[in-house]
Amino acid sequence: MAPPPVAAASDAAVRAALDAVYRQEARRIFATLVRLLGDFDLAEEALHDGFRAALEQWPKSRVPASPRAWLVSAGRFKAIDGIRRRARFDAWDDATDAVQAFADPALAWDERDADAEALEDDRLRLVFTCCHPALAPDAQVALTLREVCGLATEDIANAFLVPAPTIAQRIVRAKARIRETRIPYQVPPVAELSERLDAVLRVVYLVFNEGYAASSGETLTRPDLSAEAIRLGRLLLELLPEPESMGLLALMLLHESRRTARASAAGEMVLLDEQDRSLWNRALIEEGAALVMRALSSRRFGPYTLQAAIAAVHAEAKDAASTDWAQIAGLYEVLLRADPSPVVALNRAVAIAMRDGPAAGLPLIEAILARGDLADYHLAHAARADLCRRLGQTAEARASYERALSLARQAPERQFLERRLAALAP
Amino acid sequence: MKYLCMVYFDHTLLQTMTPSERARLDADSMAYDKELDARGQLIVAEALQSVKTAKVVQVRSGRMSQTDGPFVETKEQLGGFILVDVQDLNAAIQVAARIPLAKYGSIEVRPVAKVERIPS
Lengths: 426, 120
Hints:
The structure holds two protein chains of two kinds. Chain A is built from 20 helices and no strands. By secondary structure, chain A is an all-alpha fold. Among the domains of chain A are: 100 residues, Rna Polymerase Sigma Factor, Chain: A (Orthogonal Bundle), CATH 1.10.1740; 95 residues, Winged helix-like DNA-binding domain superfamily/Winged helix DNA-binding domain (Arc Repressor Mutant, subunit A). The N and C termini of chain A lie far apart (68 Å). Chain B is of the alpha+beta class. Chain B has three helices and six strands. The longest helix of chain B has 20 residues. Chains A and B meet through helix 2, helix 3, helix 7 and helix 8 of A and helix 2 and helix 3 of B.
């Protein structure tokens, strides 16, 4: 926690202490400053100014007993000072209102506000504000990654293979929207919590998926994004131990456990049933499986928990042949009721084919494709192709593999489909 | 990371301002430079003399030419610049938005390119 006070810390020691505080506390301090100042941009400047003030003053006095409280206080002071200064010069419309608001004793700041619980509440407020439904989904993602995770605009852009100005624009617009529509900086009331939490989980899972299976590009995964998503998932679970938070974290951990086995040394895609299970990360599997059990026992679980449960069944099989497909198919039945999406229906059909044979699964997949929902989803055609292949319907298999190939965008997936196509009997 | 904020404005706009408005704009601009400097974000900031004082230099086939210019049709001309060091593009945009002349002109924000040094 806080280092013991020293008479007059050396510059190097202060820098080291400050770096450590920045790494651990910067985002927490930022979240509190957003609450105190009522504005993201002001809070960002205040954060910067607070750390800068510390860099100047701590060597002269000492590293304070509560660095977090000191930094919030210093940042807030500089921000108010800046607003007053600008108000004198600028035609800044909100200046008078803002200054009056800070003068309001009800918003006074004291050391007690720096206690751990208040700060965690502020972090929750920040997460829920960044994932507010009034913001466009890609704006929610960009804003969360920058403001909650502290990633730089350029890093977010690189991760999503989108130009930096595009991400910058999304963030600028999102902040403007928060200001204009006066999105309140608060944890949603209990009645809305479940729905609002869904939005947050969706953002986290989107980030994870972007890192896990890059939607376009040469390599199959982008590990940094997935790591960030897992970090976010852990934070969310710590702040709000809801069953679906547990379920999502479990799901991500279980997917992550197979990262090394998912691609061959040559970068080729290796399907689940062909993966070298000795490469699976057992620690992540254990952690994920334990979270699934906790979530299931709450009886308030949802789709993420169910998906995690399915992943856990796979993880517990010592080899592909030992996979308990009956349990998986059963879990998909429940999942389909909770989340009646075409992709879930597809995965259920695949599980049924594994449990009861390809002849049982093929009609289900054809019904899904006939409805048109997954007409452009390469995995739907790949699944159909696989079942046709297993039933000896070579011409049909070829047609579906070709359709899948025309829709697949990632190089490793394309190579995999090409290999399957080439392996078909003429 | 470094970003160059290029300040473009129509100088004729300034000529339509009253002397006290001009004075306030100048004071604000200098105060803002100081604020950025106090933050440790300023590398260098300068105003430029009028575009009438500009010369365009080119070297082609070993011969240098020097002409008055540039004669561009746009009303907004490059009038100054601020080179800053901030955490990312959004931080640079925030800095640019607060430049006093941003209310009258346009600020082009561009990241400084990282030149890869090829090991010899």
